[in-house]
Amino acid sequence: MTSDKTPAAGFAGTDIENQWSDICARLRGEVGDTAWQSWLKPMAVRGLEDGRVRFAVPTRFMRDWVLAHYAERIAKLWAAVNPAVGGVDLLVQSDRVAVKAPAGPAIKAVAAPGSATSDSATPGDWRDSLSAPLDPHNTFDAFVVGKPNEFANAASKRVAEATKAPPFNPLFLYGGVGLGKTHLMHAIAWHIRANQSKRNVLYMSAEKFMYRFIRALREQNTVDFKEQFRSVDVLMIDDVQFIAGKESTQEEFFHTFNALVDQGRQIVISADKSPSDLEGMEERLISRLNCGLVADIHATTYELRLGILESKAEQMGVPVPHKVLEFLAHRITANVRELEGALNRVVAQAQLVNREISLETTQDYLKDLLRANDRRVTIEDIQKRVSAHFNVRLADMFSERRSRSVARPRQIAMYLAKQLTQRSLPEIGRKFGGRDHTTVMHAVRKVDELRSQDQAFAEDVELLRRMLES
Ligand code: ADP
Ligand code: MG
Fold first, then answer.
1. Is the peptide bond prior to 102 cis by the omega test (within 30 degrees of 0)?
2. Which residue has its alpha carbon closest to ligand 1 atom 6?
3. Cα 184 to ligand 2 centroid, rounded to whole Å
4. Could you tell me the mean pLDDT of each successive run of 10 residues in the chain, 470 residues long?
5. How far is the CA of 184 from the centre of ligand 1 (A)?
6. Cα(132)–Cα(53) distance, rounded to whole angstroms?
């Protein structure tokens, strides 16, 4: 055993547990008894891996909450007592999860190290330690499909369901942060593990790939490293943009990639940009990545956001008024992760103080988040976009002209300003050539009325909204 193994061995067990109980006691003083009881006490420490302390928590909800509110603090406190700790990871582990997760080896993957779940199919298989854990919630069933992601979803399903040659190689999924790339990759892995348990699926982040590779170099183990990667049937590398500019890792990845493709093994890659837009990537790797199917996930639409919220609220089993869901779908537009986070916050906060969830409490709990989202669309953006769309002069947004051809677009712009920003009616009026707030109110009513009467009109307004939000 070389000293490099210490993260796995030396710090596991009691050391880490003792450190946690010290840190936990300290946090209790900082956050108070109630929060400590609700969030910190249920966390079970599982060990240290790759410089990150792993915890098991009973629900996904709890995981998200702890990640959002305490993880950073915990990591900081920990680094102060044990420099080997660079961060914390939370795994969801509960009876409920185990039951819901796909059968068989699936449960093994969610189990934290040290837990006693066994999998007779591949005992002690190296892949269990190599493949990153899969989130049991990230299945195809839990993935809400809409226009922005239907292509990526369909392509992922094709790959997951294929039993012979890969339908396309690689499948390259790309899109902005929080739009579902990792979810789809986990879904593919779950599906294959559940239906074709003989196939070896290896899922890991590009960052981890690099980490492993560097460790193999250091330990002069590159032959084993190559062996391990080249014996998988399905290799999934998440967030490949991470290895941009990292030349030797790219080189190794390129060879692994080629070796697997030549043997007809499936490769699935994700990134935040299309292959050609990835900077700091070698040409030959880019052209390889472009060879299969490139599927992008677009920014969410209102309908998709609402669908996702409905599905998440149902999963949480908490009654959330539909109005609140609609409100969140309108206002939290950045990505799905933020949307989920907002819903979690609203629910958690209401539960903590034991109040019903309403539009009012929602606005209150999410004040900061809503403000941040608002900054994204300004009244000026709206005026520009709307006047361009209806082919009227920008000046007509402020002018006195009342002819229908300019008054209607102006009303739509006011309506959108009300919907998409947090400006008050008087503020909006002022920005439209110093109009009165009753004029804005009238515009909002008028547009609402027209939307309900005229389908084409409603679509037009919706289109404008989407363009402004994306
Ligand atoms: P990415 O990897 O693209 O940054 P993730 O896959 O991690 O994004 O998605 C962020 C969060 O949003 C995850 O919790 C994921 O389950 C959820 N999510 C994203 N898209 C959808 C969807 N279409 N339906 C349900 N949940 C989704
Ligand atoms: Mg991801």
1. no
2. 180
3. 9
4. 39 73 86 75 86 84 79 89 88 49 32 32 44 91 96 97 94 95 97 94 94 89 88 95 92 94 96 91 93 93 95 90 94 90 92 90 89 77 93 94 93 94 88 94 94 89 82
5. 8
6. 14
